[in-house]
Amino acid sequence: MGGEEMGQSALDLQRGGIAVLDSDGNVIWTDDAWAVDDGDGGPTRAPIGTNLLKSYRGHSDPIAQAIANAIVAVFEGKATYFEIEHRTDRESEHSLLTSVSALRGDGAGAVVIHRVVGVSAPPNRHRLVDVRAGERAPSDDGVERLTPREREVLDLMAVGLDNRGIAAKLGIQYSTVRGHVRSVIEKLGARSRLEAVARAYQVGLVPT
Amino acid sequence: VTEFGFALSEQHLTTPIHLALLHYGLPAMREAMVDFLSPALDDPTQAIYFCGPPGGAARLLSYLEQDTGRDLHEEVNNKRIVLGQGDPDADQQLQNLLDPVHELCERGFSLVRVVGPAAWEVEGYSAPEDFLWYESRILPGIEGLPVAIMCTYDAAELPAPALLYGALETHTHTLIHGVLSENPSFLPAERYLRTRLINLPWLNPSDQGRET
Fold first, then answer.
1. Model confidence over B149-187: pLDDT tens digits?
2. Which of A106, A131, B75, B181 would bridge A179 by S-S if both were Cys, CB 3.0 to 4.6 A apart?
3. For residue B205, is it left (φ>0), alpha (ψ between -120 and 50) or beta?
């Protein structure tokens, strides 16, 4: 993805992108940044109707496989939200955060979002977060692994807001906030919401 | 603002109110609960909501039936008495309290009386620090509503003094040995979090081993 190491990715990693998939994995909406491998080693914009699930399945890259697995899990109702974060290459200061969330509405489907984030993460690390099942990869670098959105959520946890208040403040779904809160708690190695908040104060993540 | 009273004692208050009953042992709690809830049993315009750890609401209903000699199944069936659900996630527990209470208010009840026992380290319930956070968020959640909430703290069962401080700092009023008082120790939710919750001894590595 975005280089030799992950060159078979389905996205222009310098820009990030959003794709909405129907229940078969076909792109039914996408922004300008989304692109697929054109077979010659370079990305091209994914046309509506491209089967993104097949595109990911066709790659040997473990990240692409992880994203495909996340999409399938969402389609099958086994999870409502996944996050996969990894470095684009060893030298990059940025990492890529891919989220896969269930599409709400009459039909099943998923929203896949790639974001380039400035979080410094160890090279090639990737993790899978299943929010609904509460099963996550173990954390070893806590604070650094918080995504920008999780930092925002933590800031609002630190002023005491409940999940509904955080959702209203950030303009996102309540269920999404729940997932972020659980992820924050786990990444900070806390056993409870307040322990995570206390830890954030202790390490200076939020001003006292 | 709704004025309300107790059955036996000469207590008159206005809503919304978040009251901590500090007591020793179950009999004292049951006596206070009957005093607090009995007026609602005789007034169909009032509703009752029970909450607490898993199974706690049903136990409270059972106590109330035994202590008043009434069968309250009909009130439960028509949802004038509602049994809440405990949850290990304190935020979910908060929503489990606020959503039904708001619904009862929207149904037009003139007053909703709530009783919930504090509990610690109970299986299927939130961590103590999260429970105290939950307590601190209750009052902001019932702002402007005709709701009176009495949380019961059994001082004989409290595993740490910090929890008793928590009871005092998250409730606007206290009821101790039958005496109802405005609580000078009460702190607004945000201040409570910044000055108390994050400094709970067991959450700070440097304080490990200190008396809690």
1. 999 999 887 777 777 888 889 999 999 888 888 888 899
2. A131
3. alpha
Give B198's contacts in chain A (Cβ within 8 Å).
194, 197-198, 201
The per-residue pLDDT for A107 is 57
| Residue B21 DSSP code | E
Q: Are B149 and B186 in contact (CB under 8 A)?
A: no
Question: CA nearest B193 in A: which residue?
Answer: A160
Closest-CA residue of A relative to B95 is: A164
Judged by a CB distance cut-off of 8 A, whether residue B90 touches chain A is yes
The two beta strands, B12-14 and B3-5, are antiparallel
Whether residue A192 lies within 8 A of chain B, CB to CB, comes out as yes
Are the CB atoms for A82 and A131 separated by under 8 Å?
yes
Indicate the residue type of B55.
G
Q: Please report the beta strands in B24-71, taking only residues with DSSP state E, as ranges in sequence order.
A: 46-50
Strand order in the sheet with B46-50: B81-83, B46-50, B111-117, B147-154, B17-23, B173-176, B179-182
Give residue A16's pLDDT. Answer: 54
Q: Choosing among A155, A161, A162, A180, which should be mutated to test the B contact, i.e. which has the most B CBs within 10 A?
A: A162
Is residue A206 less than 8 Å (CB to CB) from chain B? no
pTM across the whole model: 0.64
For residue range A83-120, list pLDDT tens digits in order. Answer: 777 765 655 555 666 778 776 555 578 877 766 554 33
Between CA A156 and CA A152 the distance in angstroms is 6
Is A178 touching B (CB cutoff 8 A)?
yes
